[in-house]
Design a protein that fits this description.
With 187 residues, this protein is mainly beta. Helix content is 5%, strand content 48%. The protein is globular and about 75 Å long.
Length: 187
């Protein structure tokens, strides 16, 4: 039986890498597999990545009981929220929900923000290391569901906030996968 108070099982994520890939890209299947087909999204704010799992339920009540008899699960959510600090060809289209980039020549580029964005399905990944332990979370089907507010001003770096939400898997029932070499997490 594991020790209920085990400081050796406290984990931090002092740094990490956020990845994005086109829909259908295969996620790394092992802790050492390459992130083939993924782009790194660059620097993120000090908050790192905030993961959230939610569940919607309905209560079943009965005449003969004042307490709930049963819960029905009616929805499941898995989200990753982060704020990017870099401005580049991967971040801008992701933030604005797609659009088109035109090289106008002479070092000038134009990005047209679509007035009718389509579902921009992607594959998400984040990896963090704590000492000798590596963690990888992948979500094979996500889309940006919120981008938050960005301030363009004099006193701070421009920040690009994102919330990515998982979509139902194309096959099977796996919404996301966490891989680690940290035996304390699962044994």
């Amino acid at each position: 039986m594991p020790n209920a108070l085990a400081a050796s099982e406290i984990r931090v994520a002092p740094s990490g890498t956020i990845y994005i890939a086109p829909a259908g890209t295969a996620v790394p299947s092992t802790i050492s597999a390459a992130w083939t087909g993924f782009n790194q999204l660059g620097y993120a704010s000090e908050d790192g990545v905030k993961l959230s799992r939610g569940m919607d339920t309905e209560m079943v009540k009965g005449w003969q009981s004042i307490s709930t008899l049963r819960y029905l699960i009616t929805g499941v959510t898995l989200t990753a929220a982060f704020t990017l600090l870099q401005t580049n060809k991967d971040v801008i289209p992701l933030y604005f929900g797609g659009g088109s980039i035109t090289n106008q020549g002479g070092g000038s580029f134009k990005f047209d923000i679509s007035s009718a964005p389509a579902v921009d399905e992607r594959v998400f990944g984040v990896e963090w290391v704590d000492g000798s332990f590596t963690y990888r979370l992948t979500i094979p089907r996500v889309m940006v569901t919120d981008t938050g507010e960005t301030t363009v001003g004099r006193s701070d770096a421009i920040q690009w906030p994102f919330t990515l939400s998982a979509m139902s898997p194309s096959t099977g029932s796996v919404l996301g996968t966490l891989i680690t070499n940290d035996s304390a997490a699962f044994s």
